[in-house]
User: Fold this.
Amino acid sequence: MDFDLSREQKDIVRAAREFAMGEFTPERIEDFERDENFDEKIWKKACQLGFVGVWINEEYDGAGMGFFENCLITEEFSVVDLGCALSVGATCFGSEIIQTFGRQSQKTQYLPPLVKGETKMGNAITEPDAGSDTAGAKTVANRDGDDYVINGSKMFITNALRADYVLVFARTDPDNPNPHRRHSFILVETDRPGYSAHKLYGKMGIRASETCEITFSDVRVPVSNLIGSKEGDGFKQLMTFFNMTRCFVAAQAVGVARAALEETIAYVKQRHAFGQPLARQQATQFKVAEMYTRIRASRAMLYEAAWKVDRGQIDHALVAAAKWFAARTAVECADTALQAHGGYGYFADYKVNRLYRDAKILEIYEGTTDIEKIIIGRSLLR
Assistant:
């Protein structure tokens, strides 16, 4: 069994690290944190260098790599700043569904502009009363001749204000006795009448990343915007999508946890207490050892999960385990890092302050920790 990355993968890691350190500078991050905004020039540059949508096939102008390689990039970006990593990587959030389930005409039309930095997209799933309970989403798409008429609202949607189009998880068969056959994904261009989005401010973390609420008021789109060959496949498509994107969240978590460890090591080496550096104290060494071990375990689980996804061997329990364990690791490492910094870490002058605020979202989006445990438990006990 070979645990080493290939030469190409090592080059990807090196390039991603250099890009993130060069573009996500402390001065820029401070501006993004304060203004809750992001410089789109960085996203454009990332597209030009091939960091966006690397899993998109070459026939659609993508790099034709895998989700494993995307996880390598995501980790390196997230070490520097999670909000910036999201602002770059999530610009094609939902393209996984188009590539996997979309018709050929949809793939040809919508995928190439994403990797070229010409368009952005979003994926509208969560609703005010339907978060973890995705099958409870009430946004409806009624058939009217050759159109769907969409009404409803979505909450906490990334890129909804700047996206050129979003995938909408909507009820197309609301009376179906099977709740998992009621929904479909429908592509909605954001310039259509009746579509409105406004940005949500005041997030605890990931402030560089745009989060919005969407309202659909009699939004008409052609039936040809349905993703897939028939209605009612939305839930199945969503579950496949989550097995891909939860790997990305695990990679984000490994990056945040790694940053917390790096910040802790640097601080305890130069900070003195009781007449010696904190690094010489056994209690500090234990904390660093625990952080390191959990990070390595998280990364190993993530690598296995992403490797299998790329080979079509999707293991729902493994993906869920990788996501929740890595997210918990990030939260615990951020907490340990801040504790090691003492009162200094409580102030925004230190990176651990931001890591502490950013880490918690990893246990919430793309499936909460409890949801991941339910998936694991049901898979084992089925």
Remarks:
- The two ends are 30 Å apart (CA to CA).
- The chain has three domains: 7-116, 121-231, 235-381.
- Residues 121-231 form a domain with the Butyryl-CoA Dehydrogenase, subunit A; domain 2 fold (CATH 2.40.110.10).
